[in-house]
Amino acid sequence: MVTGTVKRVECKPYDDQVMGTSGLRKKVAVVQQPHYIPAFVSAIFDTLKDITSGALIVAGDGRYYNREAIGFVLGEAAARHVPKVVMPRSGMASTPAVSLMIRNRNYVRHEKVFAGFILTASHNPAGPKADFGFKVNQPNGGPALKEITDAIYARSKTVTSYEIAEWDSAVDIDTVGTQTLCVQQGADRWEMVLEIIDPVEEYLQMCRDNFDFPLLRSFLAESHLRVLVDSLNAVTGLYTHRIFCDELGLPAAVCRNNVPKDDFGGLHADPNLVYAKALVDLMYSGEYDFGCAFDGDGDRNMILGNKFFVTPSDSLAVLTANNQKIRYFREHGFKGVARSMPTSAAVDKVVQEMHMPFFETPTGWKFFGNVMDAGTLSLCGEESFGTGSDLIREKDGIWAALAWLSVLAETNRGRDLAKERVLGVQDVVEAHWAKYGRNYYSRYDYENVDSDKANAMMAFLRDHLADLKTQHGLAVADDFEYHDPVDKSVTQHQGIRLVYPDGTRIIFRLSGTGSVGATIRVYFDKYERDATKLNLDTAVALKDLIASALAWSRIEEFTGRNAPTVIT
């Protein structure tokens, strides 16, 4: 039996451990500072409730410094009398899989999980000179609400010591099974159970239960759909072969970059047109019919067809319109849909026709969770390549890919695929545009901008909202404010909205997912109903709108940048 002796460690408080949109994001060099992670973990334990009467789930996306941080968490959990820690093998699991673990244990098995710690910086780069992250999930499986993260931050600024168990031998986190760790402090002795589980099986069973795997398998076999699945050397590589090859019968070659690496093999595991360019180039070669990519922790997705890119906004709209082609929604009903405010209004047209509940929220998956818990929301999405259902309380990249394959399979059901052309991704999207119209949509990211300059630009826009509305005939010019329909909380300053009478929108907001500086994001959304104008180049369709936005904001003057870092 491994034994740990608790010791008290003196430290200095850190004043930079503020949690953004989805947790703490810092450069590895920052979190490697003496006591940085242990002090932060101590602040979390000081803030959470019931830590001695339930289990803690701990997992990460396998990026550099993952195992070291897990070691700190285990040592402090033991010192705090946490009775049980559940961890996937080697401490690696996708963020949606962790959400599922929490929910299964709290709502299906009726065990008690008081929190999940997920060690991830999501889509940010990994490696010794890159980023590390740490987020806390609630008992419902979703990200901690602002009131919790604010309390953690407040406590982090006062931590001057912490207690941690130092083990007499290495704790095995690589072998599935249950072990008991003995902990002692002076004359006191107690035990902590460490359960190591398979990181894939529980998530795989959820997929089997909620998608029609026999249909997908037969469709893929009969259609000879040429598929590529790119994990970008991140954590979804644990799952992709089991799901797409073993379960759905695709050849092993469809799974690209499916060996997780602590630096993502030098790739930037952000599934967009810029950072997943190798996949994009293959899809635009015309040799493949369906492509998908996932980010570092598996919660984001990108969907592509043959020479065709699906914007995340269109993806949400198409899945909403075709929700009955997805087994889970057929069997359990479809309650409503939500999007983040910066996401294009493409789904709004579907909602209006289908007369279903609709919610517009700030960016951040935690805002969807409240509405899901109230039983009024089934599907939600963000323009930042996030899509998910109420099965869990996180966005889910693999779920989105399986949902799209389900739509394709049902769309082609009953057709003689030996004789007829397979209706693919582009066919589905263009049929959607023909029915509902098209929202031309793009996002400009200005990354690692000096924070003071970014805030100055946003302040400038806020000061001139009234003038912009009057001078340019806008219907809306405001700083988005969200009133939660469930808990009645109010969340302010969520992005500058400039909206024309026809619904065309320009949005400015600062992202909270970076590790240094600020990221300014500018969103462009223009609705087109004219059937002759549904296949324009996006840059052409949005040219005038983009020019107006850049001029009004004086973004080059404030940032010194004459072009965005990334365009999606």
What's the short version?
The protein has 20 helices and 26 strands. It is α/β, with parallel strands linked by helices and 568 residues long.
How would you summarize the topology of this molecule?
Layout: E1 3-10, E2 24-27, H1 28-31, H2 36-47, E3 55-60, H3 66-79, E4 84-88, H4 95-108, E5 113-119, E6 131-137, H5 146-156, E7 161-167, E8 177-185, E9 188-197, H6 201-210, H7 213-223, E10 227-230, H8 237-247, E11 255-256, H9 277-283, E12 290-294, E13 301-305, E14 308-310, H10 312-321, H11 327-332, E15 337-340, H12 346-354, E16 358-361, H13 366-373, E17 379-382, E18 386-389, H14 397-411, H15 425-436, E19 438-449, H16 451-463, H17 465-472, E20 476-479, E21 482-483, E22 490-491, E23 496-499, E24 505-511, E25 518-528, H18 538-541, H19 543-553, H20 555-559, E26 566-567
Parallel strand pairs: 1-8, 3-4, 3-5, 4-9, 10-11, 10-12, 15-16, 15-17
Antiparallel strand pairs: 1-7, 2-6, 5-6, 8-9, 12-13, 13-14, 17-18, 19-25, 19-26, 20-23, 21-22, 23-24, 24-25
